[in-house]
Amino acid sequence: MIGTSVIFQKEAMAATAANSGPVLSICVAYTLTDEITHAINEACKEKYACREEEEEDRAISVDDIEKYLYTEGCPDPDILIRTSGETRLSNFLLLQTAYCHLQNPYALWPEFSLWHLIWAVLNYQRVYPYRECTHSISDDCLKTPM
Questions:
Q1: d(Cα 97, Cα 101) in Å, to the nearest integer?
Q2: CB of 103 within 8 A of CB of 123?
Q3: Residue ranges per domain, the chain?
Q4: Which positions, given as ranges, span the membrane (predicted)?
Q5: Which of 40, 44, 69, 75 pairs with 134 at a CA distance of 20 to 30 A?
Q6: In this predicted structure, what is the pLDDT of residue 142?
Q7: Whole-number average pLDDT of the chain
Q8: Cross-strand pairs, 80
Q9: Please, what is the Cα angle at 6 between 3 and 8, to 5 degrees?
Q10: Which of the four pLDDT bands, split at 50, 70 and 90, describes residue 55?
């Protein structure tokens, strides 16, 4: 079972390596505490590896931490779907979801279906119509009532 899963993962990664469209991230068994601890440790190793640097070069910035987050290279999510009707994030992607739309359907994860996903996307589009306009230069988009 595990070997099949690894093969499937490698095939899926190879098949989608050139994709440039939307990104679907599924995170399981994740906590921000582990991610921040890892990122700070790695940033410290990098900054303090050379003792001859000037003091201001050794200060750790947000960019230094973001470089070592588990989600480095992934765009921040626009929608976060929290199943089971929960409205709290429970230490989950707190930095990345600061400006994210939270969907909380009552379906549990095993019951979550394509229809729940479609509903979440349609609801997001209804609530955030300006997102499409923000990529446009047109001033008419800015006058759209929300």
A1: 8
A2: yes
A3: 29-74, 75-146
A4: none
A5: 69
A6: 46
A7: 77
A8: 102
A9: 110
A10: low
Query: What is the reported pTM?
Result: 0.59
Q: In the numeric block, which tokens belong to residue 68?
A: 């070592």
- Decide: residue 46, CB within 10 A, 0-12 exposed, 13-18 middle, 19+ buried: middle
The string of DSSP letters for 61-130 reads -HHHHHTTSTTTTSPPPSEEE-GGG----SSSSTTTTTTPEEE--SS-GGG--HHHHHHHHHHHHHH-TH
Q: Find out whether 59 and 40 touch, Cβ atoms under 8 Å.
A: no
CB 96 within 8 A of CB 76: yes
- Is the Cα torsion angle 54, 55, 61, 65 positive or negative in sign? positive
Share of the chain above pLDDT 90, in %: 8
Report the distance separating Cα 116 and Cα 28, nearest Å: 19
Q: Which residues pair with 103 in a beta bridge?
A: 81
Quick count: other Cβ atoms within 10 Å of Cβ 13? 9
When pLDDT is averaged across residues 66-95 and rounded to a whole number, the result is 86
Taken in order 105, 107, 108, 114, the sign of the CA dihedral is negative
pLDDT, residue 69, reads 87
